[in-house]
Amino acid sequence: MSTQITQLSQGLTVATENVPGALSVAAGVWVGVGARDEPAELSGASHFLEHLLFKGTADRSAKQISESVDRVGGDMNAFTTKEYTAYYCRLPRRSQAMAIELLGDVLSRPALRESDVDSERKVILEELAMDDDSPDDVAHRLLLASLFPEHPLGRETAGDVETVMATTAADIQQFHAYWYRSNNTVVAVAGDIDHDVVLGQITAAFADLGVDGAKPERIRPESSPGAISLLEDDTEQVHLTFGFRAFDRMDPDREALDVMNHILGGGMSSRLFEEIREKRGLVYSVYSGASLYSDGGLLSIYAGARPEQAAEVAGLVRIELDRLRTHGVTNDELDIARGYLSGSFALGLEDSGSRMARNAGLLTAMGAIRSPEEQAARWEAVSSSDVDRVIERILSRPVVVSAVGPITDELRAVVEV
Question: Which residues are catalytic?
Answer without folding.
Answer: 50
